[in-house]
Specification:
Layout lengths: L1 H5 L1 H4 L7 E4 L3 H13 L2 H6 E4 L5 H7 L18 H10 L1 H9 L7
Parallel strand pairs: 1-2
Pfam families: CRAL_TRIO (PF00650)
Organism: Ceratitis capitata (Mediterranean fruit fly)
Protein name: (Mediterranean fruit fly) hypothetical protein
């Protein structure tokens, strides 16, 4: 299990800085706790877990203007899935090309 959690460094095409996990529901809470028990110390320091009810801590860390409307941000930050879908379709060949890259290890 620890290999799976820490293998994200080999899979993601970018270096993760900070990740915010918003937990909604008992299943996600249990899953997150299980995964975090196997994560490296460095990974745990970059993860911030929020309960999904009180967004004050998230707002303070990320900023009100950066939050989506459904997580307590301004109304104009409402996510329009159609815009996202159209963007992905327009750039599908580029995204496919990114999938073909392999991370190179330096010995």
């Amino acid at each position: 299990m620890a290999k799976i959690v820490n293998a994200k460094n080999e899979v993601l095409p970018f270096t993760s800085r900070i990740v915010h996990v918003i937990q909604k529901g008992m299943f996600l809470n249990a899953t997150t706790n299980l995964m975090m028990s196997f994560a490296s110390k460095e990974f745990k320091e970059r993860i911030h877990i929020h309960d999904g009810k009180n967004f004050e801590k998230l707002r303070n860390m990320v900023g009100y203007g950066n939050l989506p409307a459904e997580y307590g941000g301004p109304k104009e930050n409402e996510l329009d899935v159609n815009i996202l879908y159209e963007h992905l379709l327009r750039h599908s060949s580029y995204l496919s090309q990114l999938q073909s890259y392999r991370k190179k290890f330096v010995s």
